[in-house]
Structures are given as structure tokens and as C-alpha cells.
Amino acid sequence: MHELEKTIGYEFKNEGYLRTALTHSSYANEMRSRCPYNERQEFLGDAVLSIIVSDYLFKSSHLAEGDLTKLRASIVCEKSLWGWAKEIHLGDYILLGKGEENSGGRERPSIQADAFEALIAAVYLDSGMERTRQFLMPFVLRSLENEEKPAFKDYKTLLQEIVQKNPEEQLSYELVEERGPDHDKTFVVQVKINSNVIGHGEGKSKKAAEQMAAKEAVELMGE
Amino acid sequence: MHELEKTIGYEFKNEGYLRTALTHSSYANEMRSRCPYNERQEFLGDAVLSIIVSDYLFKSSHLAEGDLTKLRASIVCEKSLWGWAKEIHLGDYILLGKGEENSGGRERPSIQADAFEALIAAVYLDSGMERTRQFLMPFVLRSLENEEKPAFKDYKTLLQEIVQKNPEEQLSYELVEERGPDHDKTFVVQVKINSNVIGHGEGKSKKAAEQMAAKEAVELMGE
């Protein structure tokens, strides 16, 4: 479990939450004295994930409600959660019952996704919303980057549209800083029109930092 | 709008969030210069409501995941939201387009429920999660009291089951204090076995305070 804590860059005060997140019901059912398993935390983690993603999409985009809902559904879903679980090799740590193990449960997307949701709740119960947001956003941002989002009229698009009105003006983004450990990097980006800096942004991925820089620029331009 | 702020016991720092929550798309569509309407805030409010209800149900009950999910669905739904909107006469404040007004839109459950969801987001955007929880929980608790919840094995039931092992012992709950203004009352309850006080609890409704008192008693008894 310490290895997993190192991977996710979070050390639990109460290891019980982590242990519960990693315990599948099939394992608990086989114990003589039943131990807690991850289904209740999964229930909570689902809502924590949803508010963190909703808050981010609401504040960082101009999307209309229908597009926000579609985009949220594409992130808050088994496919993303499974992907995130694989990124941190969560399957290796799940406590499974023998029957489940023998039928290949360890590799099942739903078992891994559910454990990841329970892990979200574990961080939330251990340290509250803000720390959980910090833990989760790098995963969310990577998934958003991979999304097909024709409808995502974001700040970069918006800025592009404003600038295009003057064809001689050229937009460019530059990475000016990378800081922090690998699992929790912060990127700083500036956006320029020709050679003039018109915005700075920070984020947990380059794309997110670019969004924030574009946002600053759009606001500077009074739009 | 000030009347509504008085009713809900919350004064906005940024009145814009409240105004947007009260603006239906039909109204915005009729304006020459389009103004923001409540659909995006409704998207956010839905997730805020869900985490507040999930957090409460998770922490205040022993329910299994399936029952938690059922109970959450019975609270996070149009029927509850419509009921809450009616409690605060939200319909009276909604800005509607003429067509919608003439076809009776002001009384439509979905329009009122959506505005309430957007109002939740308005408080959240204006003051953050904790203040929103404070605003919302009295509504949630009243709805939970009205729920049929055969599956809700709560602390009171649990305590009853423990005490019943000794038939000569009698459980009773007493309200010992009510404080705060009408829209934001706090109740304090004690629970006794025969004449001995075994727990105290506070809550935003009598039933919630009884739950907390029973929780303290159950924990005192080492269960």
C-alpha cells in the first residue's frame, strides 16, 4: 500500500480508508469476521468525482448546458475510471476473493473502475475536497485532452476567433516553466500576439495552462 | 430578489448569480441583448446537490451501497427539487418569456426544479461548499423525513435493537433546546435509557438531532 501511496503522491492519515477502497466484496465475504469493502466508498467517490469535474468544466469553459453534460458524462464513466486505475496499476493492489481471482476479476474494468472511485472517496474522507481535487485533476485533464470535443468552445478557440479578425496578428503559446514532482507537475504557459505577451496561465497539463492563459487574454480584451 | 434572499436566509455578495438562477432561457431569448440564463448553473447545481446528499447519507447511516443509491435518487430528483422550490415560492421570482408565461410555465414542476438547482449553484459560486451545505441541508433533511425508507437501518433503529435485548429498559428522546431563526433552526435532543441520559445530538430537524443522539449512544455502547 505504501508503494501505491507513493505512486499517487498521497499519504493517508487513516490507512483504513485506503484499505477499504482496495477491498472487493468477494474478499470481505470470504473473511471469517467480515471486514469493510469498497462499495459504500464507491457510492461517495462517484459524487465527489462528479462535482470536481462539473466545477472545472463550468468554470473553465463557455460551453452550454447540453455540451457540459455530454462532456461530464464522457469523463465520469467506467471507461475513464478504468484508464486511471491502469495508470496507477491499481489492479495489483485490489484484495479479491478466490473465486473472483480465478475467474480473472483482477483485470475486469468494472472492478478496477469501482476501486478507483472508492479511492477518490478515501482521499476525500481522509483530507477533504480541496486535497481530493488536487489528486484527481491531473487524471481528469489528461482524459479531457484525449476527448473528441467538437462542441468544446473553449478559451483558446474563443481567443483564436477574436484575434482572427485582424489577419496580420499571430497567436502563439509558450511553455515558460515546469515545476513540481512528476506525478504532480504544474505547467506555466504564456500566450502572445506577435511578440506581446497578453496572458499567463498555470495548470496541471500544458493544455490546461494554455486554457488559463487564453482565459486571461480573453478577459484582458474585454470579452 | 431581496425578499427571496430573506426567505432563504442568504444574502448574495454577487447578485448576478441569483439573477441568472432566476432567468429561464425563454426570457433570455426574448431580450435584444441576450443575458445569461439558468441552464449552466443548473448543470453545476445538480452535482453540488449530489455530493452534499451523498456525503450526508454516507456519514450519517450504515446503509449498504444499494440502499444509499436508492435513497440518494429519491432526494436528488425533480420531485424533491420542485417541493423545495414551492417551500420558498421560487416560482414567483422566475423571469419567464411571454410564450412560456402564457402557457402556464411558471407552475411547471420542471421549470421550478431547474431554477432551484441553479439557485444551489448560485450559493455555491457565491460562497463555496460549506455555506451551500448549510443552506441546503434543512431542505434535504425534511425530504428524508418524508421518505418511505424501509431499508434505512439508521442509528435510532440500531439503538432500539441493542436496547431491546433487555426488555425492562425503555428508550426515550427529549427535545432540550431549539435555537436560531425560523429558516435555520438547530434542534438539540437527548436520548435516555429509563432516566439515564446516554447521548446528545444536534441537527437541523428533530429527527436529525435524534439520529445524532442515537449515534452517540450506539458509540458509547461500543457498537
Could you please describe the fold and organization of this structure?
Chain A is mainly alpha-helical and 223 residues long. The first copy, chain A, folds into two domains: 2-146, Ribonuclease III domain (Ribonuclease iii, N-terminal Endonuclease Domain, Chain A), CATH 1.10.1520.10; 155-220, Double Stranded RNA Binding Domain. In chain A, 58% of the residues lie in helices and 11% in strands. The first copy, chain A, has helices spanning 2-8, 15-21, 25-30, 39-60, 65-75, 78-87, 98-102, 109-127, 129-146, 155-163, 206-220; strands at residues 171-179, 186-193, 196-203. In chain A, strands 1-2-3 form a three-stranded antiparallel beta sheet, with helices on one face. In chain A, strand 2 and strand 3 form a beta hairpin. The longest helix of chain A is centred in the N-terminal third of the chain and has 22 residues, at 39-60. Chain A is elongated. Chains A, B: Its cofactor is Mg(2+).
